[in-house]
């Protein structure tokens, strides 16, 4: 496992980057990797851990944890081990996957140990660390943002995976040659040779939307399925993985519903901004994306209620009533029947005149209160409760 074999994220580990410079010097700081699923956060953390072992002649102890299945006790145990190891000149690296699963109070346990250098923390998260992580912890760690992998990156990863399982890419001529061979039963005493044509790899790289884990899982399932179906194996134990095999391995609900759910807040924002801009077709598109992700229709309607007041307001007071009635309708009949209600409300709000007067005025009042120096002014006597009652 070496840094040269890592695919993608050249903006982080390229020749002239800060992280690459630190790794060359053997200085591993506490750091947070933030990026979408399947972009290589865990792989990069493991490479850094292995590289630090190599640079220090194995004088590094690595603790692998996941915040989804670990607790404060696991961190305390790691601290105890780290203190014992430090007596013999051995450093400790704590790798915490899904660190955002720890709440702010749980994250506080890292602070004194990262501060004093008891261990080096490498955390990975798919959530925005400025919202999900403790600011005090962020200030003690270097943060690196990993981008979604490009289609070329995923293609390269799939090529490496094929080489690892004794496979190869095929052009059209080679594929026809293998297909024309006599099909006989699977030879268990001969090593299987997997073949995938370039078009299939390109399709898979594009369909996974930058998530290498999804692509690799689909390829693995396809190869396992063809192993079981020995009747489709040629006399030389050549197995061609077809596009149909890949599609069976790549479950559509995973690439759509799960990935959409992971970025639902971005899609809600797109819906909001499309309605604000009066773009009817765009608004319906983003509404359909949200519904395809199996979002609760009441949550969608609740967002429409907010939009009706924030972006339309006094320009069309009836918009608030339309949105509220839509939410009540969604509560009564649910999906799939309420999809038309949401569509009707979305189009109404997109076509309605816009006014942010109330929203801007309210924000100005809140800003004045926050920026006021000293105690807030007292309520005037004539405006107090029961001020009209005489002594």
Automatic annotation (TrEMBL):
Biological process annotations from GO: DNA synthesis involved in DNA repair; DNA-templated DNA replication
Domain of life: Eukaryota
CDD domains (UniProt xref): AAA, HLD_clamp_RarA
Annotated AAA+ ATPase domain residues: 27-149
Keyword field contains Oxidoreductase: no
Pfam families: AAA (PF00004), AAA_assoc_2 (PF16193), MgsA_C (PF12002)
Entry keyword annotation includes Nucleotide-binding: yes
Single Gene Ontology MF annotation: single-stranded DNA helicase activity
Signal peptide: none
CC terms in the record's Gene Ontology section: nucleus
UniProtKB keywords: ATP-binding, Nucleotide-binding
Protein family: Belongs to the AAA ATPase family. RarA/MGS1/WRNIP1 subfamily.
Protein's recorded name: ATPase WRNIP1
Organism of provenance: Atta colombica
Source organism phylogeny: Eukaryota, Metazoa, Ecdysozoa, Arthropoda, Hexapoda
């Amino acid at each position: 496992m070496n840094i040269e074999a890592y695919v993608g994220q050249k903006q982080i580990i390229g020749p002239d980057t800060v992280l690459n410079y630190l790794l060359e010097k053997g200085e591993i700081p506490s750091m947070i990797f933030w990026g979408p699923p399947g972009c290589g956060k865990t792989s990069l953390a493991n490479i850094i851990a292995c590289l630090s072992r190599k640079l220090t002649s194995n004088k590094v102890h690595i603790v692998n944890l996941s915040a989804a299945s670990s607790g404060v006790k696991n961190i305390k145990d790691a601290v105890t081990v780290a203190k014992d190891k430090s007596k013999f000149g051995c450093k400790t690296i704590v790798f915490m996957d899904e660190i955002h699963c720890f709440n702010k109070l749980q994250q506080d346990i890292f602070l004194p140990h990262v501060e004093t250098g008891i261990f080096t923390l490498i955390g990975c998260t798919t959530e925005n660390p400025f919202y999900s992580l403790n600011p005090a912890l962020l200030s003690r760690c270097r943060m690196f943002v990993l981008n979604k992998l490009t289609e070329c990156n995923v293609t390269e990863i799939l090529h490496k995976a094929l080489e690892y399982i004794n496979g190869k890419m095929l052009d059209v001529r080679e594929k026809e040659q293998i297909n024309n061979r006599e099909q006989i039963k699977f030879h268990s005493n001969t090593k299987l040779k997997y073949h995938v044509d370039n078009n299939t790899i390109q399709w898979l790289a594009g369909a996974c939307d930058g998530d290498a884990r999804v692509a690799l899982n689909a390829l693995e399932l396809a190869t396992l399925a063809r192993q079981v179906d020995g009747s489709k194996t040629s006399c030389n134990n050549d197995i061609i993985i077809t596009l149909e095999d890949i599609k069976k391995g790549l479950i559509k609900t995973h690439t759509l519903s799960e990935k959409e759910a992971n970025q639902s807040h971005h899609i809600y924002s797109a819906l909001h901004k499309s309605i604000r801009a009066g773009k009817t077709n765009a608004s319906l598109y983003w509404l359909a994306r949200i519904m395809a992700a199996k979002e609760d229709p009441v949550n969608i309607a609740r967002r429409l209620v907010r939009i009706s007041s924030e972006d339309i307001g006094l320009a069309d007071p009836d918009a608030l009533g339309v949105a509220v009635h839509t939410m009540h309708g969604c509560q009564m009949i649910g999906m799939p029947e309420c999809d038309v209600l949401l569509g009707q409300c979305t189009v109404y709000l997109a076509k309605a005149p816009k006014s942010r007067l109330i929203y801007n005025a309210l924000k100005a009042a809140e800003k004045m209160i926050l920026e006021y120096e000293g105690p807030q002014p007292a309520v005037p006597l004539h405006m107090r409760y029961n001020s009209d009652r005489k002594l």
